[in-house]
Amino acid sequence: MPNTDVFTAIANPVRRRILELLREGPRPAGSLVEEFQVNRPAISEHLQLLRLAGLVVEEAQGRQRIYRLKPGALDEVTQWLHPFETYWQQRFAALRATLDEESP
To answer: Which InterPro entries does the protein's record reference (predicted)?
Structure first.
């Protein structure tokens, strides 16, 4: 299995879309497969990587596998992005100040 860190997991657009779908609530694997133009084994691999990265939880309900978002794993991404957010907030504040000075 490839590297299962959070950054690798969210680097793929299919996996990001799966996370977006699960943000709406838990879903069976079959329901997720229907959202994509790829086969069931491909989606299963994406779900496995998301599970190994700690981004989703899998629960068996009869013959179905239900997947649920586990958002706490995204804290690592949030912490990494925070300095960039601060940087851009400072830039926008400086732009706002400049524009306010030039406004009549």
So the answer is: ArsR-like_HTH, HTH_ArsR_DNA-bd_dom, HTH_MetalResp_TranReg, WH-like_DNA-bd_sf, WH_DNA-bd_sf
